[in-house]
Structures are given as structure tokens and as C-alpha cells.
Design a protein that fits this description.
This protein is α+β, with helices and mostly antiparallel strands. 38% of the residues lie in helices and 30% in strands. It has 3 helices and 5 strands, in the order H-E-E-H-E-E-E-H. The chain has a 5-stranded antiparallel β-sheet with strand order 2-1-5-4-3, sandwiched between helices. The chain is globular, with a radius of gyration of 13 Å.
């Protein structure tokens, strides 16, 4: 996902503080966009977390598309690119984020990324 596409995705979601596009196989941050500056170590941990979550998912029902964690202080969400299951979109959002809008926006961004390749 290009930096401009990632920026456009994050700007559509006013509650999204950080969006990171990662390669799950190599645990590499490919691109990121944030309202604040986050150190590379933080982005690397978010990438490793996504890789661990998708690797730990049950395999019998097919690939897991997304994993969401929300608490009173905020949320972390991870969306796998089903066209290329080795890539994922990770987001940090406010606690009151509209989850349906987040999921729909992530699916649309990942789908347009898949057709652009």
C-alpha cells in the first residue's frame, strides 16, 4: 500500500491515530501514517503482534480476515490482505471508533490495493 493510499485511508477515519501496512512473513513495516510520530521500535512491535495473531489463528476455517481489540482507552485492529495473506493493515484507533466503519474502510482500502497491483 503506497504512503498516499495509507494516508487517505487514515484520514477517512477521524478516530484513527496510526495506520501501518506490514509484511507478516518478514515482520517488516512497509508503510505507515500517523497523527503523531511513533518510533520505529513501536511500529516493529505492532507488526510482530499482527504476525503472531494471524499465525495463532485456527487454520481449519480458512484465513482469519481481521482481529480487533478494544478497551476503554483505545483499540488495536489488524486486517489481513486476503489477496496476499502475507500482508496486513494495523490500526490504532480511539475507544469509541465505529467498528463497522473501520472494517468497511479497511476492506475497501485493501481491495483497492489488491486491484492496483
Amino acid at each position: 500500500m503506497t504512503p498516499s493510499a495509507l494516508n487517505a485511508f487514515r484520514r477517512k477515519l477521524t478516530d484513527c491515530e496510526l495506520a501501518v501496512y506490514v509484511d507478516l512473513r518478514s515482520c517488516t513495516v512497509l508503510s505507515y501514517d500517523g497523527a503523531l510520530h511513533f518510533p520505529q521500535e513501536y511500529l516493529d512491535v505492532l507488526c510482530a503482534c499482527a504476525a503472531d495473531l494471524f499465525e495463532a489463528a485456527p487454520k481449519d476455517a480458512g484465513p482469519v480476515e481481521h482481529v480487533l481489540f478494544f478497551s476503554p482507552t483505545g483499540g488495536r485492529s489488524f486486517f489481513r490482505t486476503l489477496a496476499d495473506p502475507n500482508e496486513a493493515l494495523c490500526c490504532m484507533c480511539a475507544a469509541d471508533t465505529d467498528v463497522e466503519t473501520l472494517i468497511e474502510s479497511a476492506r475497501a482500502a485493501l481491495a483497492s490495493e489488491a486491484t492496483a497491483q
